[in-house]
Amino acid sequence: MSDTPLPSERYRQGMATRRAVLGDAHVDRAEAGSTAFDRPFQELITEAAWGHLWSRPELTKRERSIVTIALLAALGQDDEVAMHVRATVNTGATREDIREALLHVAIYAGVPAANHAIKIAKQVFEQMDAERAA
After folding, report:
1. In this model, does residue 76 exceed pLDDT 80?
2. In this structure, are residues 101 and 69 in contact, taking their beta carbons and an 8 Å threshold?
3. How far apart, in whole angstroms, are the C-alpha atoms of residue 15 and residue 63?
4. Residue 6: its pLDDT value, please?
5. Domain map of the chain by residue range?
6. Mean predicted confidence (pLDDT) in 86-98
7. What integer pLDDT is reported at residue 4 of this predicted model?
8. Mean pLDDT throughout 102-119?
9. What is the domain class of 59-134 according to CATH?
10. Residue 67: how many other CB atoms lie within 10 Å
11. Over 90: is that where the pLDDT of 114 sits?
12. What are the distances in angstroms from CA 91 to CA 3, 8, 88, 106, 112?
């Protein structure tokens, strides 16, 4: 008999949503890099962020993507901004959507936060364009 509990339905839904938004390659890398130390954290974010929040039907993935990028930019979470900008290819949020969200960040959270997030978004878009062209 295994000591490892089976994943909950919320976890399974969260993993499906996480993969739909971030892509299999990103999630596979995160899972492969998981250790006994951070596995509980990975389980927490899969259930809470992806299973509870991102899986709710009231907002589309596009809308959640826009809100998430704005919040992460306002908080100065650079790596997460980059990850979620890259995920727009899966969520349907456009570059114009992201630009508008970051204009809101400038007014409501500060110009420096928006300026830095715009720099990050531009770099990610350039990388995505280069990958698409290759």
Report:
1. yes
2. yes
3. 19
4. 72
5. 8-58, 59-134
6. 98
7. 64
8. 98
9. mainly alpha
10. 13
11. yes
12. 37, 25, 5, 23, 26
